[in-house]
Amino acid sequence: MKNGPKIYLVHAADVSIPPVVASFRASWPEAKVVNLLEDALMSDLAADGKLTDAMIGRIVHIGHYAVKAGADAILFCCSAFGPAIDECRRQVSIPILKPNEALYEQLVAKNGTVSLLATFQPSLPSMLAEIAACAKEKGTQVNVEPHLVEGALQALLDLQPDEHNRLIAEAAAKQETCDVIALAQFSMAPAKVLAATRTAKPILTTPDSAVEKLKVLLA
Hints:
This protein has two domains: 6-99, Rossmann fold; 101-206, Rossmann fold (3-Layer(aba) Sandwich). The chain is globular, with a radius of gyration of 17 Å. By secondary structure, it is an alpha/beta fold. The protein has ten helices and eight strands.
């Protein structure tokens, strides 16, 4: 890996690609990133209404494919497939990260209050449960205050990234009682720059946290 590790980024939606690639370029340009988009995963999950054995098998197959392609690690950038990623980990020998686990580890490293900003409401319940479980395992007391940034996701889907970022920055500016602000979705990461001009609170993003953890794992 003298020229940098080869890391496969697995996406279920194309909006997650630019933010995580930007994080690698900024923090770890030596890494060779490969983007693998399988955008049928989301529609098939919605159609089935649950994570099926067949879909778990597809995720595991993606893991084996990445290994055969010479990957040194895999970062899944789609948060709806946790149990499938767990199974992939059991069957694949290289390091595999879930989308949010590095962020969670940073959030629960010490006691405090977290403002969790999200643009996709269905993601919040599972994220809150996962952060609570992570804090319990770590032995810290973390109070998470979830906030849905209304209209931001639709702005992004309508190809209005500036409006998406503005709405997130406005929401960040209102978080006055927390110790840290976390942006829940990969697609929210580009809003960090503008949000940082509106608040002095530390702002964490999922791709930045994931890149940092991968650098440690593959050091």
